[in-house]
Amino acid sequence: MLEKLFKLEENGTNVRTEVLAGVTTFLTMAYIIFVNPSMLAATGMDKGAVFVATCLAAMIGCFMMGLVANYPVAQAPGMGLNAFFTYSVVLGMGHTWQVALAAVFFSGLCFILLSLLKVREWLIHAIPLSLRTGITAGIGLFLAFIALQSAGIVVDNPATLVHVGDLTSFPAVMAALGFMLTIGLVHRGMKAAVLVAILIVTGLGIAFGDVHYNGIVSAPPSIAPTFMQLDISGAMDVGLISIVFAFLFVDLFDTAGTLVGATTKAGMVDKDGKMPRLGRALLADSTATSVGALLGTSNTTSYVESVAGVAAGGRTGLTAVTVGIMFLLALFFAPLAGMVPAYATAGALFYVAILMVSGLAGIDWRDLTEAAPVVVVCLLMPLTYSIAEGIALGFITYAAVKLLSGKGRDVNVSVWVIAALFTAKIVFL
Fold first, then answer.
1. Reported confidence tier of residue 297, pLDDT bands at 50, 70, 90
2. CB-facing half-sphere around the CA of 91: CA atoms within 13 A
3. In the chain, N or C: fewer CB atoms in 10 Å?
4. φ and ψ at 155, to 5 degrees?
């Protein structure tokens, strides 16, 4: 049955290798079951329900990617997208989390439509590489800023907007320790470095009396507080169109980058640079986003940590299905997830930020028409506390500097359209 489903022999692999690859991928991304509930809880969502929704959305996404596309790529609620959901849409713009979930749901429907019409594939190839890189790096810097805030390392100041906090406070020290521990363990080659660092810092919090021990294993909490709680009518407001588009856009290129990286590493890309069954993979990703919104979590997306599983030998969808089974088993560790404090995940956020910012090394800094829009995106995302605004101003800057520098013909028509839409949104909405 497994041979028929995943074509193991054809892909030069076997069940043992695929299962080990799946476990490897899970260990590198399991931090999301702790980070996502903590982040979304800031919106007023029930932390236990979000924990269950996170595990179920990841399981469903992994099963779909494995069974529909036969890709060794795992899915779960995405970092960056959950930050946009919490800090931009809900806390920044003042929308309810129910409206934000509906916006995620609609973005998922848009994903599905664009995937079926193959528009998504066209967009992936049409947007400039520098802007894709800048958006990823900008989200990374935004996550770093959030991490510093949650640890109390950066605090508000009426005169300078931001200021250094009390670096000797327990949260600040623990966050710094978690970050340095993560880097040290990653450098030593530990697959579960992020997860181990989070658990060690949480353990220290318990030892010093800052965190109360509530057990490790129990029956999963109820998902009722978030299940099907979307405010569809509230999301119909014209002002939320840009939010739906932002969810769509960020997830689009986040997924594209992950799929390109994972399939290239696995040797699945043909001589023309095309990926097999790309349409199926994109459809699986987009469907998982809508399902995740119904369950009660932000966008479900493909994880770059899947490359760890590919490096361990994963070549088929059995790797992704194995990850999905691991997320299902994780449902029974809700008490442990509930004990994890914000400062324990701050180090993980900062580590993820480094991975996302590292892509800036590929930017041609000698060409200011490419570099300037990237810097605009990277700086304005954290400084405006809005991923959407950073993306918008990045596109507008890209189109404007290309036009004024005499390189207007080099700009793809899709960029002009997107820049015009963002400009109209700023002027009229």
1. very high
2. 17
3. N
4. -130, 165
With a CB cutoff of 8 Å and minimum separation 6, the contacts of 373 are: 130, 131, 134, 394, 395, 397, 398, 401
- 177: confidence class by pLDDT, cuts 50, 70, 90: very high
Residue 49 · residue 5 · CB < 8 Å: no
**DSSP β-bridge partners for residue 75:** 302
Helix axes 47-64, 317-330, angle to 10 degrees: 160
Encode pLDDT of 12-39 as tens digits: 889 988 998 888 888 878 889 988 999 9
**Separation of alpha carbons 390 and 381, rounded Å:** 4
Question: Residue 37: which of 102, 97, 103 has the closest Cα?
Answer: 97
Of 316, 244, 294, 387, the residue nearest 13 (C-alpha)? 316
Nearest CA-CA partner of 210 in 31, 343, 119 = 343
Q: How far apart are CA 359 and CA 132, in angstroms?
A: 10
With 0.85 as the threshold, say if the pTM is over it.
no
How much is the average pLDDT of 355-382?
Answer: 90
